[in-house]
Amino acid sequence: MTPLLRMTNVQKAFGDNHVLKGIDLDVAKGEMVCLIGASGSGKSTLLRTINLLEPIDDGEILLDGVDISEPGLDPQPVRKRIGLVFQSYNLFPHMSATDNVMLAPRRLKGLSKAELEAPVTTLFERFGLADRMGHYPDQLSGGQQQRVAIIRALAMQPEVLLFDEITSALDPELVAEVLDVLRAVRAEGITMIFATHEMGFARELADKVCFLDRGRILEAGTPDQLFDAPKEERTRQFLSQVL
Ligand SMILES: Nc1ncnc2c1ncn2[C@@H]1O[C@H](COP(=O)(O)OP(=O)(O)OP(=O)(O)O)[C@@H](O)[C@H]1O
Ligand SMILES: [Mg+2]
User: Fold this and answer.
1) Measured between alpha carbons, how far is 136 from 95 in angstroms, rounded to an integer?
2) Of the candidates 55, 63, 78, 47, the residue with the CA atom closest to the CA atom of residue 166
3) Mean pLDDT score, 25-51
4) Are 147 and 181 in contact (CB under 8 A)?
5) I need a labelling partner for 28 at 20 to 30 A (CA). Which of 83, 135, 177, 188 fits?
6) Phi and psi dihedrals of 56, rounded to 5?
7) Does position 194 have pLDDT exceeding 90, yes or no?
8) Closest to 44 measured CA to CA, from 150, 193, 221, 146
9) pLDDT for 210
10) Helix, strand or coil for residue 96?
11) How confident is the model at residue 138 (pLDDT cuts 50, 70, 90)?
12) Which protein residues have a CB closer than 5 Å to ligand 2 (ion)?
């Protein structure tokens, strides 16, 4: 079966800093892949190349068998299919939660507020925020803002969702809240790739965990394989520091 997303020998340098050194990664439809690794190992850069926020220097990124990494290709159609949620939620402060969520589907998909009302309300309900739809970001807690950012990404009905450290700015109680939300997203069958320092979460939810070390996927496997029986010494070292 063709993977939904396939990265082949993806290379990326910033000046003489060679950040991605030949990334090979296959992600099947509905799969949940977790990227772990030390700070600076290239997790965010890897996610940003998939979303076409960083052009790659060499290699290929295929979405459903089509090369999306061709230089000069319009990124907009790809970004409709692949959403990225950051740690900083970037909600517009002058817009209500609902307007924040509706902005991209209105602009990029040409949907009207009336058309969006029912599906967007359903999303807010599903994520426990039905009573916060008219609130502005500064009237929401950090965890609630993060959930609105996830709802905003889901409102585009992406095929793939990328999450970059979405829990690192949250206190532990809110982390639990956001992780519950990700379980719900997973239940929808959306393909997800996320970078995280939450090993417990990676272990519980991921189908596949990839350990990045200095720009390479040094080791990948099921959570059981990677956490209980890592093959590489570097992986063992990293895990002994974070577990
Ligand atoms: N826009 C950029 N310009 C120059 N260098 C960059 C840029 N973005 C990332 N880098 C460099 O690329 C390397 C990998 O960074 P990246 O943010 O991908 O790491 P990371 O694994 O996400 O780390 P962390 O766990 O701290 O988030 C770092 O050396 C970083 O300084
Ligand atoms: Mg990062």
Assistant:
1) 6
2) 47
3) 96
4) yes
5) 177
6) -95, 155
7) yes
8) 193
9) 98
10) coil
11) very high
12) 43-44
Q: Is 114 exposed, middle or buried (CB count within 10 Å of its CB: 0-12, 13-18, 19+)?
A: exposed
- Please provide the size of the chain in residues: 243
Domains annotated for the chain, with CATH where assigned, are: 5-242 (3.40.50.300)
Q: Is the CB of 100 under 6 A from ligand 1?
A: no
* Nearest C-alpha neighbor of 75 from the set 57, 85, 61: 61
Ligand 1, atom 28: closest residue by C-alpha: 40
Residue in this structure with the two tokens 């990293």, named with its chain if needed: 238
pLDDT of the residue at 234: 97
Q: Contact at 8 Å (CB) between 220 and 35?
A: no
What is the average per-residue pLDDT within 39-48?
Answer: 97
> b or e along 17-37 (b: 16 or more beta carbons within 10 Å of the residue's beta carbon)?
eebbbebebbbbeebbbbbbb
Atom 18 of ligand 1: nearest residue by CA position: 42
Alpha helices in 82-226 (DSSP H): 97-109, 113-126, 142-155, 172-187, 199-205, 223
Distance 206 CA to ligand 2 centre (A): 18
pLDDT tens-digit map of 85-112: 987 778 999 999 999 999 999 998 999 9
Structure tokens at 211: 């350990």
